[in-house]
Amino acid sequence: MISLISPSEVKSPTSIAIGSFDGLHAGHRKLIKSVVEDNLYTPTIASFWPHPREVLYKETRLRLDLPEEKLPILEDLGIEQLVLIPFDKELSKLSAERFVRDILINQLQAKNISVGANFKFGFKRRGDINTIKNMIKDTDIKLKITPILEDKEGRISSSRIRDLLEKSDLKNAFKILNRPYSFNGKVVKGKGIGKSIGWPTANLEIDGRKFLPGEGVYAAWTTIENSNKKIESIMNLGSQPTINPLLPSAVEVHLINKDIDLYGLNLSVVPVEKLRSQIKFNNIKQLASQIKNDKENALGIFKNCKK
After folding, report:
1. Which burial class, exposed, middle or buried, applies to 99 when counting CB atoms under 10 A from its CB (0-12, 13-18, 19+)?
2. Tens place of pLDDT for every residue, the chain, 307 residues?
3. Which residues are in the Riboflavin kinase domain (predicted)?
4. CB within 8 A of 92, min separation 6: which ones?
5. Is 2.40.30.30 the CATH classification of the domain at 182-306?
6. What is the CATH number of domain 8-148?
7. Three-state DSSP state, 187
8. Which has fewest Cβ within 10 Å: 58, 102, 109, 252?
9. Which of 230, 239, 235, 202 is nearest to 217 (CA)?
């Protein structure tokens, strides 16, 4: 698959879908399928980066999937290139008609355009599927519209996934994502407190743009870079109320029954189930005793996972 590229580097003509595709959930996959089915042109995904609301309203938009994390998933789905359209104040002033003409038709050479039924774009989001229809009515360009996908709980959306993850409902988030939720981080130096009480942890530096589940202690699978082996682990996500409640939120991973020097390595973490919320213990000894219980509870969860 061609790596992250700008519109000027695109392999064209294209069969293209436009959207944020954050989470690549079932609704996104249905839209992607309509792109891949047209095998006459290069199957392509186009997304704005950064998110328009970050530029226009200074909102922080944490992502379920960062662009580089999407690549292997998109490749498995048959997409050949992910085009990131740089979004800035100048682009925000571009009319919907000019966006279709200048970017989709002229620059990306789209021959097949796939969008969701609620797709809005252009200056003040004034463009919609009817705008595209009018712009391509005298051309050989096709427009495919994918209906909004719903299940018994309602509309399938990235916001719904975020809400489930915030509540630590990993099981239902998995159902919508159709894959485990994961994140990556580089192991950086910590204070060594975990090691001093018999529970060494790897402190992870996570990309600040990545969405993380709700705070707490989790059973988690950890994979070390350049390895496919999943290691049973306990993850603490959040503050350290017993050690120092003033410390910033952090991600720490303890590999169960493993003694590996992880400093400087990248780890991939898949939280499986929340064990408990964070607790402020009276002393370090009580904390160590609780971590021992966490370990046993996590091992029980992993045992059931393997059945």
Report:
1. buried
2. 556 788 888 999 999 999 999 999 999 999 999 999 987 999 999 999 998 889 999 888 899 999 999 999 999 999 999 999 999 999 999 999 999 999 999 999 999 999 999 999 999 999 999 999 999 999 999 999 999 999 998 999 999 999 999 999 999 999 999 999 999 999 998 766 667 677 889 999 999 899 999 999 999 999 999 998 999 999 999 877 656 555 556 899 999 999 888 999 999 999 999 999 988 888 888 888 999 999 999 999 999 886 4
3. 176-303
4. 52, 55, 56, 123
5. yes
6. 3.40.50.620
7. strand
8. 58
9. 235
Within 10 Å of residue 214's Cβ, how many Cβ atoms?
A: 16
By DSSP bridging, strand 2-5 and strand 81-86 are: parallel
Report the DSSP beta bridge partners of residue 151: 154
Residues of the chain with CATH 3.40.50.620: 8-148
Residue 115 near residue 15 (C-beta atoms within 8 A): no
* Residue given tokens 């091992």 in the structure block: 299
Q: What share of the chain is helix, strand, coil (3-state, %, to 5)?
A: 35, 30, 40
Q: Write down the pTM of the prediction.
A: 0.89
